[in-house]
Amino acid sequence: MGKGAMIARRAFLMGSVTVAGGFAVGWYSLNQPYAFPLADELPRGITPLTAYVLIDAGGVTLITPRAEMGQGATSIQAALLAEELDVPWDEIRTDPGPPAPAYFNATIIGEGMPFAATDTRWRAEAMRGLGATMGKLMGFQITGGSSTVPDAYDRLRLAGAAARQMLVSAAAARLGLPEDQLTTREGAVIAPDGTALPYTTLAPHARRVPRPRKVTPKDPADWRLLGKPMQRLDIAAKSTGTARFGIDETAPGMVHATVRTNPRRGGGVNGFDAGAAEAMRGVLKIVPVPGGAGVIADNTWRAMQAAAAIRFDWAPSPYPATTDGLFDSIAAAFVHDARDSRLRDDGEVDKTLERGADVSAEYRVPFLAHAPLEPMTALAWLTSRGLEIRAATQIPRFAVKTAARLTGLPEDRIVLRALPMGGSFGRRLEDDYIAQAVELARAMPGRPVKLTWTREEDMTHDFPRPAAIARGRGRVEDGRVTALDLSISSPSVSASQLGRLGLNPMGADTSIVNGAWDQPLAIPHYRVTGYRAPETVPVSSWRSVGASGNAFFHECLLDELIYAAGADPLEERLRLCTHAPSRAVLEAVGEMSNWGRPLPSGAGRGLAFCLSFGVPCAEVVEVSQTPRGLRIDRAFAAADVGRVLDPVNIENQMQGGVIWGLGHAMRAELTYADGRPEQENFDTYPAMRITECPEIKVRALETGDTVRGIGEPTVPPAAPALANAIFAATGQRVREMPLTREVTFA
Amino acid sequence: MKLTVNGTEHEIDVEPEMPLLWVLRDVLGLTGTKYGCGIAQCGACTVHVDGVAVQSCQVAVGDVAGAVTTIEGLGTPQAPHPVQAAWIEHQVAQCGYCQSGQIMTAAALLAETPTPDDRQIDDAFWGNLCRCGTYPRIRAAVSAAARKLQEG
Ligand code: FES
Ligand code: FES
What we know:
The structure holds two protein chains of two kinds.
Chain A: H1 3-14, E1 23-25, E2 53-56, E3 59-63, H2 73-85, E4 93-95, H3 108-111, H4 122-137, H5 148-175, E5 183-185, E6 188-190, E7 196-198, H6 199-206, H7 235-239, E8 255-261, E9 269-273, H8 275-278, E10 283-289, E11 292-297, H9 300-308, E12 311-314, H10 323-331, E13 339-346, H11 349-354, E14 359-365, E15 377-382, E16 387-391, H12 396-407, E17 414-418, H13 432-442, E18 449-452, H14 455-460, E19 468-477, E20 480-491, H15 493-500, E21 525-533, H16 547-565, H17 569-576, H18 580-592, E22 603-612, E23 615-626, E24 629-640, H19 647-667, E25 672-673, E26 676-677, E27 695-701, H20 718-730
Chain B: E1 2-5, E2 8-11, H1 20-27, E3 46-49, E4 52-55, E5 68-69, H2 71-74, H3 82-89, H4 99-112, H5 118-124, H6 135-151
Antiparallel strand pairs in B: 1-2, 3-4, 3-5
Helix pairs in contact in B: 3-6
The complex binds FE2/S2 (inorganic) cluster (2 copies).
One FE2/S2 (inorganic) cluster (FES) binds next to loops of chain B.
């Protein structure tokens, strides 16, 4: 990046705020090799860049590069910095910053590696370190995989502490006092006589102080902010309609657009007739885009009306056109040649099962859409300098690369401003909608074009969670589970998704088996095998990724075996469990749910456990039979996050994850006919509504020694806990999601 | 045609069949009201017409006879409506995209039913989807707002 570009980006960052006299701690480092002499402070060779703190005459701006999707990322990143920097919470301003390699994610690559989260042996740790290095070398700026908090925990505290240290040094020089006589409080350095030197006036001096070689973050015992309920920085805006999401973004002279492309993904378009659309009121331009066309108009509704009036001749899907055909291709992959992984192979499974299997069952999970409530949107325009993009995205640097490829502009002429999202759940790990906005902007140089998808476009152009089939067998002896053999076949998320990002993942796709192979259980004969089904519908990461379906397979099979053994689901899981924090969450959820206490007749309790994203989580669901069908009465979840940074946000995320898991398990699926999803909106793709929402009690434990993210891990156990509860209440095993295929909910 | 929104009368030149939602968002620039489905399934577009909660994606602007109140007209960050204050206090929002609609539903419910029971709360919010799953907090915030409003 040239100097000009850096200044331009800084000016853009600061908006109308005066930059004069401002300084950015470590901001220069964006231009320098990443090496920075704090390396010995960090695990796994991560080098911190204090590219996170900006101070100007108006106050402190914290850079929070992980995207705000509703999970509270902005507030938690700000809190990690503010805790160390000693700035008042209610005066903080945040900014997502520019897409930059310095904001690489050092954690997320490790998650895809074939090591269980509970594996702390040197080889696993070394590989995770390699993952961190790769993330850094590639400048892999990405939000996802519940990695924001684990990735930021040390890095942002050190960045805040380093900035504070520089301010203290500057104050010491000005006052002629030793640094150790100075303290910091509320955005100022405090001298022994009580004189307060505000950071805002110290900043110009601090920029000349050498970066500290060593900083020590606070002892958690001294935390003022972290670990206590905090007021989310965006809460007032989100409660008054003043929060601006991607869909709300405007620019002077802006026009509105929508697109329609072939819902048979990748099928392409043979042609279209836009005659009627062109003549409609407000229509400015019809623009061909890959797979279809966009309409630019003077408001969104007119664009949508006109797009609906275009007649398309779409080509057939390049994959099987029906749900049955798609499942056939998954079923056909249970063959040696398609074997992708066998990461768990304990004892002698074949020999044990030759003596007879007590349970033998097949399970299925469907394709699922992310369907965040805000549909895909992006605003883009060509300027005399280059290209401006404003969009909600989890992958800002990839989006810039895509835009560069489409426009032929160098990346440093493309300014992308990341906006808050109305939910994502993994959907905005794709940049397809941003690419479309860029195509539309190219058709009207100088004119800001805001693309807004209809819900129908969104639902039919998701990159869904892949469907999967599992075949399970097992054996019990003397009241114990002695063998569990699970084979899972699914298309590969990593091949499909990373392929679109231009990356070529090598080796096994652990997401085919995550949440199943990596569970801390000592079943004597225990095997999990992954089979890679061919890529059909393009698929991607959906909240909790592989574990979302694999926990259903694993925990339903285990529950069947435990019942076959005549054992108690909680006691048998505790007996098999080899990991102390996992045992703790099982015990906690047992206590919370009064496990073992009888329920009225017609009611039942189900338990499930899954360790995903390093977080062990156990859930109990209670259902009862009513004249109108089954009702979910209560749900309980206990999870270990290592350290609770914000109890309110954790409660909200845990409850949200349970609702997500239960709601989709009950009723949601994408089915295919004629190569396209049959569901287009929330009438046929039902989400959980408040009337179905049970009472949900959650507990976050801190027994584990690593701080973890909680956005995803409460999702996987919800569906199997519900299915197991249905069995307890009715005696019926439901082995296929959505569960409404076989049971009725009230 | 004339349209009164948040106490201000506007003269607008659009097709009468244009949904109120898009008039608010694109013509008047009141983006607090959200688009989520366009087919009466999500409630993100909920506003009040003469105090009654309606899904603005389902109302043709030409059919609007009464005064429209949007989330912007209910209260502001500096002077929130009691329902908004309860939403802030309980930190209901995750992504927040559904919350304008949830809050408008809550305000209309409490104006009509000052002390709703759990069943009445659930029924009133049936039409408001929250993909993030903030329902437990919505219930708590509505009950708290009801108590606040009763105390005056
Ligand atoms: S946008 Fe009106 S109900 Fe969904
Ligand atoms: S808070 Fe995200 S949809 Fe409700």
